[in-house]
Amino acid sequence: MAGASAEDVKVVGLSLSPFVTRVRIALRLKRVEYELVEVRFLEPKSEILVKSNPVYKKIPVLLHRGKPICESAVIVQYIDEEWSDGGRSSSILPADPFDRAIARFWVVYMDDKLPALIRALRPEKEAAKVTELAGQFRQVLGQMEETFAECGKGKGFFGGDAVGYLDIALGAYLGWIRALEKDKSVKLLDSEELPRLAEWAERFLAEESVKGLMPEADEYPKLYAAAVASQ
């Protein structure tokens, strides 16, 4: 597939991580076989993680022919360029330099806001605080609803007719978004408040490149607890 085998490509990380999910979706879009190497993310961290990402010691890491590439946004761009199939393969990043810059901007915005909100909301038990955090979450998604209207240009995805860079970046968070909605009994991606984004989410999750890469919503708390316990 795309000239690479699982022996050539390894993804170091955990299936629960939205950042790892990004990389896996990109590889599937490019039809690249790979091996997922699940590792410890708490101290003491797995040796392969420390060795392949000695600066941040964070997942994910892409190992391609033994060479490490770190940071999910960087990895997705690498995948897009490395497996372009001489230009015959569809591009993940926008072709236009301005559109590409805008997409990168919004990925930085999401990664600045959403992980912190997920970390805060996941263990929260106090009803008032849950409501407050859910409101902050909807504000961020509301901004992405507006961005979708601009970047999608009336088509089905941020990338236009097909899944692209921004779709992968935001879509990888959908597993956690749905898990938090169920676990905390709150609405984050509200179809009434955010109709275009909610419809986009359904289309994204139905894509063959996405199916099966994110656990079901009710599995996240159990899988997270098990992952922490195994560290």
From TrEMBL:
Keyword vocabulary terms for this entry: Cytoplasm, Transferase
Pfam family, one: GST_N
One of the protein's GO biological processes: toxin catabolic process
Protein name: Glutathione S-transferase
GO function terms (MF aspect): glutathione transferase activity
Origin organism lineage: Eukaryota, Viridiplantae, Streptophyta, Embryophyta, Tracheophyta
Catalytic activity from the UniProt record: RX + glutathione = an S-substituted glutathione + a halide anion + H(+)
One Gene Ontology term, aspect cellular component: cytosol
Family to which this protein belongs: Belongs to the GST superfamily. Tau family.
Domain GST C-terminal: 96-225
Chain ranges of the GST N-terminal domain: 7-87
Cell location: Cytoplasm, Cytosol
InterPro entries: Glutathione-S-Trfase_C-like, Glutathione_S-Trfase, Glutathione_S-Trfase_N, GST_C_Tau, Omega/Tau-like
Chief localisation class: cytoplasm
Function in brief: Is involved in the conjugation of reduced glutathione to a wide number of exogenous and endogenous hydrophobic electrophiles.
Organism: Zingiber officinale
Enzyme type, top EC level: transferase
EC identifiers of the protein: 2.5.1.18
